[in-house]
Design a protein that fits this description.
Elements: H1 15-24, H2 29-45, H3 59-68, E1 75-81, E2 87-92, E3 104-111, E4 116-119, E5 123-125, H4 134-137, E6 140-143, H5 146-159, E7 185-188, H6 198-209, E8 221-225, H7 229-239, E9 242-246, H8 252-258, H9 267-275, E10 286-292, H10 300-310, E11 315-321, H11 335-347, H12 360-364, H13 379-386
Parallel strand pairs: 4-7, 7-8, 8-9, 9-10, 10-11
Antiparallel strand pairs: 1-2, 2-3, 3-4, 5-6
Helix pairs in contact: 1-2, 5-6, 6-7, 7-9, 10-11
This protein binds S-adenosyl-L-homocysteine (SAH) and iron/sulfur cluster.
Length: about 400
């Protein structure tokens, strides 16, 4: 007998989905809007995980909801906490049917004194095959749903005591204080290409930034793309979030190899899309990610070419030490090489683009997490560490 609980969860649902769920349990049309608002408040503002906790909704309606739905989050398969407070969760998404084991993805949290950044995934796997990326070598699985993207944030907020009345971990490694939120920033830098899951990501951003719910600021959400040029303007227009671009090379022949999508949308087109990115300004700079690959893209000439390429753009640069994986065809640049590269970038007006990686201790344990869909991507942490590097003011 199948004992799987296949009741759909409403944690992660959009307003439209909540309205539909209410209609399905027989709530009359005239009440739907009001009831949707109530559910929204309890799910996203209060973070409850049981319908019975919704005190201003009558019991019969709560019972009907509970018969059909749950408020379950993605299941935590493994959790690791670094000595510096970096946390990593391996999450299993609820199965979609009796034969579905449930996709596994991971999610990384980096705390700082006054903020915390959560790195979320947008897909299980990725179709784009960047040659330095472990996800890229594993082939395609599927897009995550809006609920599965939002669910990652809800798990993190649950675990960090970031919902009202929640209990923060007692290790003192989660930022706290008046007006400080444990999860204040989100970066779409986990698995997958967010702009290949545009609708899923856009709807998730809508849920995350709704002022009556999770209330995250759009300016504190960064979407990283490998350069899906035709979707970039839409991202700015429809989501209004910050943009990060995985550049990694300053000329087409090399970028064609590292990021094969470059053959479709070469550097000149990508740069034009960046110049046109809606809302980019000196106060809202575009982040350019540049992974440091030994002997491949790390020469002083390339640092100068990078500066030249970005001239006139409101940019910040994140130099990411390459994170090797078993069988990876590259090595990370030597520290001196990274320093020399960063100095050239610094002298051009971009401040401190490299910092020491965080969460090294749990990084080391990465390969120990058992996941049959994806090994933990420790490099997300390295990347996140860089995500606050600032450009010239
Ligand atoms: N697909 C999107 C977002 C996810 S990848 C993108 O490519 O932008 C997030 C970042 O991690 C990208 O800049 C990617 O190039 C970088 N990355 C991937 N594998 C890496 C590795 N092994 N070491 C360091 N950075 C890596
Ligand atoms: Fe996909 Fe980004 Fe990895 Fe490239 S770097 S394969 S786009 S996840």
């Amino acid at each position: 007998m199948n004992v799987l609980n296949l009741q759909p969860s409403l944690a992660g649902a959009t307003r439209a989905e909540l309205s539909l769920a209410l209609a399905e349990v027989g709530v009359p049309a005239r009440e739907i809007r009001m009831r949707t608002g109530q559910l929204w408040h309890w799910i996203y503002h209060r973070g409850v995980s049981e319908f019975s906790a919704m005190r201003n909704i009558a019991r019969p309606l709560l019972d009907k909801l509970a018969e059909r739905y749950t408020l379950a989050r993605p299941e935590i398969v493994a959790e690791q906490v670094s000595a510096d407070g970096t946390r990593k969760w391996l999450l299993r998404m609820p199965p979609k049917g009796p034969l579905d084991k449930g996709a596994e993805i991971e999610c990384v949290y980096i705390p700082e004194s006054d903020r915390g950044t959560l790195c979320v995934s947008s897909q299980v796997g990725c179709t784009l095959n960047c040659t330095f990326c472990h996800t890229g070598t594993q082939g395609w699985a599927r897009n995550l749903t809006t609920a599965e993207i939002v669910g990652q944030v809800m798990v993190a907020r649950d675990r960090l005591g970031d919902f009202p009345g929640g209990v923060a971990p007692t290790d003192g490694l989660v930022p706290s204080g008046e007006g400080v939120r444990a999860v204040s920033n989100i970066v779409f830098m986990g698995q997958g290409e967010p702009l290949y899951n545009f609708e899923g990501v856009r709807e998730a951003i809508g849920v995350l930034t709704d002022g009556e719910g999770l209330s995250l600021s759009k300016r504190r959400i960064t979407v990283s793309t490998s350069g899906v040029v035709p979707e970039m303007a839409r991202l700015g227009d429809e989501c209004g979030t910050m943009l990060a671009v995985s550049l990694h090379a300053t000329h087409d022949p090399l970028r064609d190899k590292l990021v094969p999508l470059n053959r479709k949308y070469p550097i000149a087109q990508l740069m034009q899309a960046c110049r046109d990115y809606p809302g980019a300004s000196n106060a809202r700079r575009i982040t350019f990610e540049y992974v440091m690959l030994k002997g491949i893209n790390d020469s002083p000439a390339e640092a100068r070419a990078l500066v030249k390429l970005l001239k006139g753009l409101p940019a910040k640069i994140n130099l990411i030490p390459f994170n090797p994986w078993p069988g990876s065809p590259y090595e990370c640049s030597d520290w001196e090489t990274i320093e020399r590269f960063s100095e050239i970038v610094f002298n051009a007006g971009y401040a401190s683009p490299v910092r020491t990686p965080r969460g090294r201790d749990i990084l080391a344990a990465c390969g120990q997490l058992k996941s049959d869909t994806q090994r933990v991507r420790a490099r997300a942490r390295l990347l996140l560490e860089e995500s606050h590097a600032v450009g010239p003011e």
